[in-house]
Amino acid sequence: MISIKAPEQYWNEPDLLLKSGALIAPLGQRAFLIAGDKALNAVHPTLLESLDQAGIAYEIAPFGGKVTLPEIEEYTAKASVYQAEIIIGVGGGKVLDLTKAIGDKLRLPVVSVPTVAATCASWAAVSILYDDLGRSSGYQPNRRSPALVLADTRVLASAPKRYLASGIGDTIVKWYETVVNLSDDPDGLDIRIATQTAKLALERLRLHALQAYEAAGTGQVTHALTETIDSVIVLAGLAGTIQGSTSRAAIAHAIHNSLTFLPQTAGTLHGEKVAFGLLTQVVLESRAEEEIRELALWLHKLNLPITLEALGIFQDPASAALEIAKGVQLRDGATKSLSFEVSESLLAEAIQRADGWGRRIIEAGYAAI
Fold this sequence. Notes:
Blueprint: E1 3-4, E2 9-13, H1 20-24, E3 30-35, H2 37-43, H3 46-53, E4 57-62, H4 69-81, E5 86-91, H5 93-106, E6 110-114, E7 126-130, E8 136-141, E9 148-152, H6 153-158, H7 161-179, H8 189-215, H9 223-241, E10 242-243, H10 251-259, H11 270-284, H12 289-301, H13 317-326, H14 344-363
Parallel strand pairs: 2-9, 3-4, 3-5, 5-6, 6-9
Antiparallel strand pairs: 1-10, 7-8
Helix pairs in contact: 4-5, 7-8, 7-9, 7-11, 8-9, 10-11, 11-12, 11-14, 12-14, 13-14
């Protein structure tokens, strides 16, 4: 069995929100709109005016917390009391994950309006969960992806470049995490499709990511920026929601999850933690030194963390690496198809070596863009 979840429609163009009301209206006439203050400012007044013009009533529910099970219950109750027909999420990954979880519980269509291209959350049929301290707490699979994704490239091009870099890092990871699970299993069509989709994303980013990063934050919608946004949202989202029977060892994301338990990393974004997890994974795989160096340099040019210190961890690297390694949890049987060994001690060693690679890149004088 293979399951592929995708939005019914994905729109990406400059000033798209001018016609957002007309696109949303077929889904319903009462919208429960969840957004953070910065995100709402990024789409104000265009989105709300367009909803008004389309005759869509809405209630705005501010959100600035963590996607926890109690928060999902609280906002679900609010949407139910409002008798919402649509759930609209405006913002980054946390708001969009909360929105999807609510839509799933109430069996209502969800509209994703990303204001940053920092993850594939606006597409993916899953909500990432945390506890009140921001520590990883698993995930909630959703029955479907959002019905509609409205990626206004003007809004996304105006967001701080740090968020785009985070999205690029999270997307680069997809191929590296997926390809290691390939095997000769004849039932592994799901992983082969996912690998090819992730490979396309990686190829597009190799061509366009650095130019897109330079343009990010200016509001200028360039070809490179559009290609990069599509890679982050569509290709990474699709690669992650092609599911079947093949077990997967998402090592970089497992390292990310462990990092969330270190308070020092609280100021870093999802894609930033994942990027360091990727550097650790390629070291663990024993990939060629030139390949590791090129990857580390690429991440560094995007100002993504390639050292423990860049993640906010200033303790002894050996003790930090061991603490992180102890927190890495992989699904049962997820490593059976891997061509390399994974253990707590090997992970700790790889984390230290990844940190060493990062230090050498920085000491060599390479600068971020």
